[in-house]
Each structure stands twice: as structure tokens, then as C-alpha cells.
Amino acid sequence: MTLRASFRHAYPGFALAADLTLPMHGVSALFGPSGSGKTTLLRLMAGLERAADGSLALGATVWQDATRFVPAHQRPIGFVFQDARLFPHLSVRQNLAYGQRRAGAGGAIEVMAERLGITHLLARKPDRLSGGEAQRVAIARALLTEPRILMMDEPLAALDAARKAEILPYLERLHAEANIPILYVSHSFDEVARLADHLVLLDGGRVVAAGSLVELTTRLDLPLAHRAEAEAIINAQVVAHDAAFHLTCVGFSGEKLWLSLHEAPIGSVVRVRVRARDVSLTLAPQTGTSILNILPATLTDLGGESDSQVMIGLDVGGTRLLSRVTRKSVSLLGLVPGVRVFAQIKGVAIVE
Predict the structure, then answer these.
(1) Ordered structural domains, the chain, with CATH
(2) Cα four-point dihedral sign 186, 173, 27, 58
(3) With b meaning 16 or more CB within 10 Å and e meaning fewer, what string describes 287-321?
(4) What's the count of helices (H) and strands (E) in the chain, helices before strands?
(5) Cβ-based burial of 52 (10 A; exposed 0-12, middle 13-18, buried ≥19)
(6) Distance set, CA 189 to CA 31, 32, 146 (Å)
(7) Smallest Cα–Cα separation from 57: which of 201, 48, 47?
(8) Which end of the chain is more exposed for a tag (fewer CB within 10 A), N or C?
């Protein structure tokens, strides 16, 4: 099943023209700079705003077309705003009960509270919650409505770094355990890289690209591959742990990476992020080096970065990596598409 959306919508000084099809599983992120149309598109899909020209269908169920418009309160969606928007006069338990009543039978409050780590907060009023706690309550309330889709509009934007770090593990757990699709709006690529499966890139009210997060982050024709923190994202499997040296070995595409010790059990899948600046290239495998990860690769493409730097796309057994090197290195090593190289990656540089 897919969500098919097409909208034409204008404000003074801004116009949105977006057509997209989203998978109804995992996390689909709407990502782009401020003013790119992310929140507007999400609100149109939620029915919180109405476009003069728009259509939206979830599978065979039409929520909007030329002849009909299902209002937001009649759509089976859960919506989490930037601010928690809890009822201030109600306790956490009562806020959750409101969501439960909206769904009829609804899910169990205690089960949902445990999932979001808010059991100890059930008796509190919203004014006694931190920003991260309040957002977890808001997410739990939205899920208790038993929605067919959960929509989240920059839920971490109003939080400081400490509160973001507090709530992200719960969002990652929700990603792993939720059996409903999630549409997630953010201008923070760090959040997107940790949570998303599918990515929609927006700029100036237009869809620049849409597809797998893993694929779009390494396409040299897209801006993501030219950010200062450009990176490849790899879904790898935990192969072994080396407790003596506090290292974990993960496998992908027939190759292995050593990284800092990870608590995930052997056999589990983890998301590994390898930044382009941390990948150096050599024409022959090196010995007598402190670098633990030396992977055979094929150079696939090059993209201009600046007068001094070049971004290089690599294929490692079917998995894409990026490497940012100097133009002088490209010249000295004769780096052109098709050349076989070895990618060197420090284990301490890998972002888990």
C-alpha cells in the first residue's frame, strides 16, 4: 500500500507544487532547508490545511480529490506538533486517556507509557514535565488514537541538545517497533539519518528527489553528498564483539567494519554512518598502519566540491561510500571512474 499525494498551494511569496508516492511502512522523512515547504506539505496531507488543487489517497481510500475533502478530525492519523500541545489542566494519564477515547477501545495506557518511558510521569501535570518528557507524552497520546499514519512535524525542534539526546532513543525504538508508517518532518539531517528509511528532499516548494535514504545520501547529483558532514549510511549486521579492545565487528556486502563497542547483540542489524571526510584512498592495501578498516572498492563517479576538493563515489560490493579528497590526490593517483582502490576508514571515526 502507498500514500499518493499531489498538491498545488500558494501563499504570498511562496508556492508549493509537490507530487509524491510514499511507502506505507517505516519512516518517511520530509527534509529540506527552512522555507522549503516541509511543514506545509505535511499539514496538507493531514487535512489541517486545504489546497485549492490537491489529491490524497491511502491505498484505495481517498481523503481528498476534486470532489471531496475529508477533514482532519475524520482522518485516522496521529499528529505530533513541534510543541507538545498537552491539555494543561489534565494529568499525563488523563491526556493519554483523551487519545484512547478518541479511538474507542484504544490501546492500553500502561503499555504505551512503558514503551515511551513515561510510566513514572502518569500522575503529573504538563507544567511539571521537561520538554522531552512532554513530547514523549504527546507521541504516546497520538499513538493511543490507533492511527493508520503517525505524522510528526519537527518534534525535536524546540528542544535543546540534552533533551534531543533524551528523546531520540525512544524515537529509534518507536521506529523499530511501530507497525504503522511514520511521516517525519525535520531540517536536522542527524535526526533523519538516525530514523528515516525513505527520504523526500524538498527545496523551494518542489520535490527535488525521493527514494531510499541509503541511496539518496550518496548521489553526487544531490546536495546531501556535498554537505560538510556528507556521509554514507550502511545497514550492517553485528558479527562479533571484542570485549578486550572494546570493539564491535559488523558485516555488509561481504565486507567487515570494526567500530567502537556497540551494545547490540550478535546477529542484529545496526545503522552505520561513514563520513566522507573519514575515508582516505590508496591504490594498494597498506600494512603497518593503525587503520583497522581497509576495504576494496571501485571508483564510480566524481563530483566537484571546490577548487581544492573533490567528492568521490565508491562501490564496495554493491554498497555506496563517499570519500572527500584533494584535487591533487585525484591527479597523483590517477583517480577516474572504474579505477580499483582501497578505502581506509578509522574505526573511531565511524558514527553509529
Answers:
(1) 2-226 (3.40.50.300), 231-349 (2.40.50.100)
(2) negative
(3) eeeeebbbbebebbbbbebeeebbbbbbbbeebbb
(4) 8, 19
(5) exposed
(6) 8, 9, 28
(7) 47
(8) N
Contact 220, 231 (CB under 8 A): no
Q: How far apart are CA 321 and CA 232, in angstroms?
A: 5
CB–CB of 26/181 below 8 Å?
Answer: yes
Query: Per-residue pLDDT for 80 more than 70?
Result: yes
34: nearest Cα among 185, 180, 171: 185
Spatial CB neighbours of 98, under 8 Å, sequence gap ≥ 6:
87, 90, 141
- In this predicted model, what pLDDT tens digit does every residue of 140-180 receive, in sequence order? 999 998 899 999 999 999 888 888 988 998 898 888 887 88
- DSSP symbol at 265: P
Give the pLDDT confidence of 42-76 residue by residue, as tens digits. 999 999 999 889 999 999 999 999 999 999 999 99
How many Å apart are CA 77 and CA 70, to the nearest integer? 12
Grid coordinates belonging to 13: 511569496
Residue whose cell numbers read 514535565:
129
pLDDT at res. 103: 62
- pLDDT tens-digit profile of 232-276? 999 999 999 999 999 999 999 999 999 999 888 999 999 999 999
